[in-house]
Inverse folding.
């Protein structure tokens, strides 16, 4: 049997993407090739690749060499991360009329001048390179429609967490949390301005002054924002995803205070682990995994007073109410799984 060869022209790899690839490789009909950019120093993931996957470092190939590489693979389907890499674009255009060629992007439709210009030039710059697009959710689907992609050629659910890793933590810690819910907020992300990390620190410190309580704030990440020291705020630095579980069992509520967050797979991760969630109205993943006043709170980005109120509301909840919110998060997390991700891709090449 001749295998279907799937080629990903990727930018920065993440471990959650590889969880989806591992599920895809469970199908013997497929062969996976990934061209990847160099590792981002602000997200220094350690990758463990399956033996039956072929990885190529983008910086080791010239434009001509990259074209020759893809020709030698003879792909059945191509996926490209956006349209930033001109060499990726060139390859996509060459294959557009031969095989399915998919573009992925996470841009939310904001109606900016740049986006409106993109909708005007899309027939000549985007649609002539790709047959399909694969986006995370409804906000990106709206943009894809405006770019001119037909609804039947728009796939959703591209960003997917390593569901089993995090859901297993929910199952393992469920009984313990029912006996005593951990009074700790947790943040996982880069320490950069647009993540709103300083909003979170300031809001938490103000709450401790206004209404002293037993809650702590645990933060995981690195970046160029200087750390705020406080006796009830703990900084753990960058932690590999497979090391997070040992901390998750002792944390209770996830907070993502981003000023700008096209999606935010981390929201899916903590929903899968059974966490109530606080996030801003700029977090794309809220549309799938957070229902306001049901399993968390969605507040206006940059509004520290709203963030404080959201955190105070959590602090005032009973352990039983917080556990119930976490149960709802788990159900919402099941909307997107690596199995569903693999089936979406395989349907394009008529395997499923």
């Amino acid at each position: 049997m001749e295998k279907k060869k799937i080629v990903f022209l990727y930018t920065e790899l993440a471990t959650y993407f590889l969880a989806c690839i591992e599920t895809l490789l469970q199908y013997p009909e497929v062969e996976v090739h990934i061209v990847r950019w160099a590792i981002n120093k602000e997200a220094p993931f350690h990758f463990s690749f399956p033996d039956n996957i072929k990885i190529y470092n983008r910086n080791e190939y010239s434009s001509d060499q990259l074209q020759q590489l893809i020709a030698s693979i003879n792909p059945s389907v191509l996926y490209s991360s956006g349209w930033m890499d001109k060499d990726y674009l060139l390859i996509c255009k060459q294959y557009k009329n031969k095989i399915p060629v998919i573009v992925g992007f996470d841009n939310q439709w904001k109606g900016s001048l740049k986006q409106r210009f993109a909708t005007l030039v899309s027939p000549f710059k985007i649609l002539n390179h790709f047959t399909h697009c694969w986006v995370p959710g409804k906000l990106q689907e709206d943009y894809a429609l405006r770019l001119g992609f037909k609804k039947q050629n728009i796939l959703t659910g591209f960003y997917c967490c390593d569901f089993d890793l995090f859901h297993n933590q929910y199952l393992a810690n469920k009984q313990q949390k029912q006996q005593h819910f951990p009074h700790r907020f947790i943040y996982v992300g880069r320490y950069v301005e647009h993540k709103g990390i300083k909003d979170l620190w300031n809001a938490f410190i103000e709450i401790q002054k206004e209404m002293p309580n037993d809650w702590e704030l645990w933060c995981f990440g690195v970046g160029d924002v200087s750390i705020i020291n406080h006796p009830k705020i703990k900084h753990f630095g960058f932690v590999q995803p497979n090391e997070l579980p040992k901390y998750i069992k002792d944390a209770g509520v996830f907070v993502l205070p981003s000023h700008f967050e096209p999606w935010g797979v981390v929201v899916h991760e903590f929903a899968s682990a059974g966490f109530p969630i606080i996030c801003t109205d700029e977090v794309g993943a809220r549309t799938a995994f957070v229902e306001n006043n049901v399993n968390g709170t969605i507040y206006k980005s940059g509004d520290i007073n709203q963030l404080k109120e959201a955190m105070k509301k959590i602090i005032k909840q009973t352990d039983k109410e917080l556990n119930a919110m976490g149960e709802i998060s788990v159900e919402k997390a099941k909307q997107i799984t690596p199995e569903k991700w693999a089936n979406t891709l395989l349907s394009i090449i008529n395997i499923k």
Summary: The chain has a mean pLDDT of 94. The chain has two domains: 4-160+336-348, 163-333. The two ends are 16 Å apart (CA to CA). The chain has 13 helices and 13 strands.
